[in-house]
Amino acid sequence: MTPSAADLIRVLPEIIWCGFGVLLMLLQPFLKNRQGLTLFAMVGAAAGTLATYFGQMGSGFFGLVQFDTYSLFFHWLVGLVAFLVILASDSYLERENLAPAEFYALILFATAGMGVLASAQELLTAFIGLEMSSISSYVLAGYRRDSVKSSESAVKYFLLGSFATAFFLYGIALVYGASGSTNLMQIASADPGSNLLRLGLALILVGLGFKVAAAPFQVWTPDVYEGAPTPVTALFAAGPKAATFALLLRIFTTIHAATDFWFWAFWILAVVTMFVGNLGALVQTNVKRMLAYSSIAHAGYTLVAFAAVTTMKLDPETGAAPAYAAVLFYLLGYSLVKVGAFTIVSEIGGQGERYLTLDDFAGLGTRQPLAAAAMTLFLLSLLGMPITAGFFGKFYVFKAAINSKLIWLVVLMTINTAIGAYYYLRVIVVMYMREHKGDVPADAATSLSPTAAMVVAVVALATLYLGLLPNHVLGIVLSQDLILSAR
User: Which of 166, 217, 243, 338 is the most buried (most CB within 10 A)?
Assistant: First the structure.
């Protein structure tokens, strides 16, 4: 049956992102100017994001996708991340002498997959979105073909990602066997006590746990983040993780069996993920690898809010709305800060990404004061210090956990925040209080490239805005329409 115009409009962002991706590859033989391709890719990312304004609220393609304010929020988030990553990649691709057209096309294809994940109302549709994002990500991870680490990154990501996909598919099969449907609304009416349904939900959680780097499914993260091109690492840390959490939250809030069954799973995953990420980051001397472990820890903080949903939903006044809002605000602030931090790491790393150790960051406050100041802001935001986006992100997660009376989870999160303070502040100390040992390499970056500087400036302003004037964004994530859309 031919889809209606309303159906096509509901997936207009994905159509635009994929269309521009295809056009980029077709234009490459004719458009040799790298800046022209970058501009074209940026236009594609922005056009797909702005197309969400034309979307008609409601269900599309016979219930396969749901376009609502919740979906719109995550489309804006992944679209913004893609735009910033493309802008930050311009100088990186020139420095590494990498072909830009395919690189940008893969980013747009991955973004389209993330958009499908955010609006999926049916599990097989979610699987398609997951694979669109994953397959593009596998290629992006190994894009530096002359680098052994990059090739290793792609192989590890592909092999472990394939296992995770198998878990996800088996979970869908078992859920279908228990409920007779893969539509979330119809699954919600299935017997919540069914062991087959519970096993299926457990396998789905394993598959999605891999994508968000929740322990013990995080083993791929440090190696893949370190080996992938740094702009790609920025994309991995922000876009796919946010989109997968969007799907996880939609499943969690729609299927009541999942809400009850996953509580202890989220509780345990949150604790283990926080400790694995923070303790792993403590012993890292490679800044890029340290930020990879930091990403694992932040997935644990997000899972704390998921655990809070189960008990908060019993509140007759607010329900679980504050916990939903905590997840959304945290993902917004975290995603932007990670893009900014990895952009600076990409610039400091130099050609071949050779200068990524803590020693290479020594004296950065003198050599590149603006880059050091921005990096300090991003690290403090990841730590959760006041006047930064990370402060309100963690504050609302803490508040949701306390209101849910998850006191032990609050205590363990506080301990992990203290652990994180050590390695975040260590980088700041190195940048400002230690001199570079020996001579600074002649090919080391002396300043941020113009495109990278624009990305860093935008993210820094957004970090301060969310930390100083969060009311507008908080009003959006706390709005009744947005919260109801997640259910």
Answer: 243
Question: Considering the entire predicted model, what is its pTM?
Answer: 0.94
- Cα–Cα distance measured from residue 7 to residue 438, given in angstroms and rounded to the nearest whole number: 62
Q: Which residues form the domain of 268?
A: 262-487
pLDDT band at 311 (very low <50, low <70, confident <90, very high): low
Determine the Cα–Cα distance for residues 222 and 425; give it in Å rounded to an integer. 20
* Amino acid (one-letter) located at 395: F
Contacting residues for 94 by C-beta, under 8 A, at least 6 apart = 34
Q: Is 376 among the domain residues? A: yes
Per-residue pLDDT averaged across 449-461, rounded? 94
List all residues 6 or more positions away from 310 whose beta carbon is below 8 Å from its beta carbon: 259, 260, 262, 263, 320, 404
Q: What percent of the chain has pLDDT over 70?
A: 93
Query: How many angstroms separate the CA atoms of 381 and 375, rounded?
Result: 10
- In this structure, is residue 292 part of a structural domain? yes
The string over 408-429, giving b where at least 16 C-beta atoms fall within 10 Å of a residue's C-beta and e elsewhere, is ebbebbeebbebbbebbebbbe
Residue 388 within a domain:
yes
Looking at the structure of the chain, the number of domains it has is: 1
- Taking the C-alpha atoms of residue 480 and residue 55, their distance in angstroms, rounded to an integer, is 19
Total residue count of the chain as it appears in this document? 487
Q: What is the β-pairing status of strands 58-60 and 65-67?
A: antiparallel
Quickly tell me which residue has 């889809």 as its tokens: 3
**Alpha-carbon distance 339 to 88, whole Å?**
9
Residue 151 has pLDDT above 80, yes or no: yes
Does residue 459 lie in a domain region? yes
Nearest Cα residue to 20 out of 97, 79, 94: 79
